[in-house]
Amino acid sequence: MAVAGAIFGAGFGGWINDRFGRKISLLGADVLFFIGAIIMAIAPQPWVIILGRIFVGLGVGMASMTAPLYISEASPAKIRGALVSANGFLITGGQFLAYLINLAFTKAPGTWRWMLGVAGLPAVVQFGLMMMLPESPRWLYRQNKVDEARAILEKIYPADQVEEEVNLLKQSVENEKAEEGLIGKDMISRLKGAFGNKIQFVGINTVMYYSPTIVQFAGFASKSTALALSLVTSGLNALGSIVSMAFVDKYGRRRLMIVSMFGLSSCLVALAVSTDTLCSDEHRTYFISGCPSSFGWLAVVFLGAYIITYSPGMGTAPWIVNSEIYPLRYRGVGGGIAAVSNWTSNLIVSLTFLTLTEALGSAGTFLLFAGFSLLGLVAIYLLVPETKGLAFEEVEKMLETGFKPSAFMKKSNKSEMHA
Asked: What percent of the chain is helix, strand and coil (3-state, nearest 5)?
């Protein structure tokens, strides 16, 4: 239900971003986080916990598409990727801390109430800190608040670059307003315009749920052991985010995603092979008695390899690209559409994983995911441009004619690029 709530949160979060700004959207997400945590902590019945999860999901959806957008618009182009990756690191680092906190509360009175209720504390902290931060300068300029936008840009860029940034922003906004007069300002017209725009985009994100279950597939029936090993995988996820921070602005978003997708496909095939050799007894209940095997550790190793391959590439780079490729007039609605697609995919994965393992077996399920990863690899190669170090206006101009990978470009175009 949290993931389902995130779909709707991402959907109307795009509208809130365009209408009221990035800051208001993040503050609203914090309020939803806090309300959801309190509802879950005091829940007298299971249905109340579900209600709290919906509130949390709404906040997750809003924050997931707003935070990268806000960071990218308030960052110099040369370090924009690293700063958006830092957001990914704080998310994965938070997941790691969540495992530790849950383990700490397993012996405490109230157990799950503390586990769920403590999530309201970071929301309060972020709300207070967010009050001290400025609005996105690009959104302010779009709202004709030029002086406020300039004041913020002066804090971000060196003095000799401020005027250039203001001029680029002015030109971009004037062009967009001229086009907007032809498209219309209502939401339906904006959605049609976003899909009909020349810019090509793709959003692909894969999240590995049920790591304790996969550990149990590997032969570790103990819940505490499975949780402890899952703590290791969440730590690897956080480590991968640090790798992304270090290399995304040096080697680019596109290269990280291609390498990541190739690695994911390989790891999923390896997981399929390793788990297929473990549970030969069809009548054995894996989460009660496990699947004892001297090779069970291989599945855990491949799971760790999957996480460390996923995190620096597909875990962070798509969010960076998604925050960079839309024209200002479509940035909120475009980011919302991409986030809705992401959370819808995550909902499908979370709802079908256990059913798929029963129908196809663990090996068949992992091979299915490997197939989707290969399709994603092809899509990234054909559709996703490199945006490293480019100003938003440069990205928009590059995509106006459509993106083609170098292998599909005419020789004359290649010569012009090198020139």
From this structure: 80, 0, 20
Q: Return the closest-CA partner of residue 66 out of 114, 115, 130.
A: 130
At 131, list the tokens.
């009050």
Q: How far apart are CA 175 and CA 70, in angstroms?
A: 22
Give the class (CATH, top level) of 2-133+184-399. mainly alpha
Burial class (CB in 10 A: 0-12, 13-18, 19+), 308: buried
> Could you give the CA distance from residue 265 to residue 243 in angstroms, rounded to a whole number?
20
Per-residue pLDDT tens for 140-162?
888 888 899 899 888 888 888 88
- Region for 201 from its dihedrals, namely left if φ exceeds 0, alpha if ψ lies in -120 to 50, beta otherwise: beta
pLDDT digits (tens, 9 = 90+) for 242-275: 888 788 888 888 888 899 889 888 888 887 877 6
Structure tokens at 276: 């297929």
What is the domain partition of the chain in residue ranges? Answer: 2-133+184-399
Q: Is 403 left (phi over 0), alpha (psi -120 to 50) or beta?
A: beta
Query: At 322, which helix (H) or strand (E)?
Result: helix 317-322
Nearest-CA neighbor of 6 among 26, 37, 29? 29
Cβ–Cβ < 8 Å for 134, 74: yes
Tokens of 205: 């994100």
pTM across the whole model: 0.68
Task: Tell me how far CA of residue 183 lies from CA of 41, 121, 179, 180, 188, in angstroms.
Answer: 47, 43, 6, 5, 10
- Please tell me the distance from the alpha carbon of residue 257 to that of residue 339, in angstroms, as a whole number: 18
CA separation for the pair 192, 108 (Å, rounded): 53
Report whether 240 contacts 208 (CB < 8 A). no
Conformation bin of residue 228: beta by default, left when phi > 0, alpha when psi is -120 to 50:
alpha
pLDDT in tens, 371-403: 888 988 998 888 888 888 777 777 777 777 667
Q: Provide the terminal-to-terminal Cα distance of the chain, rounded to the nearest Å.
A: 53
Report residue 119 as tokens.
């999530």
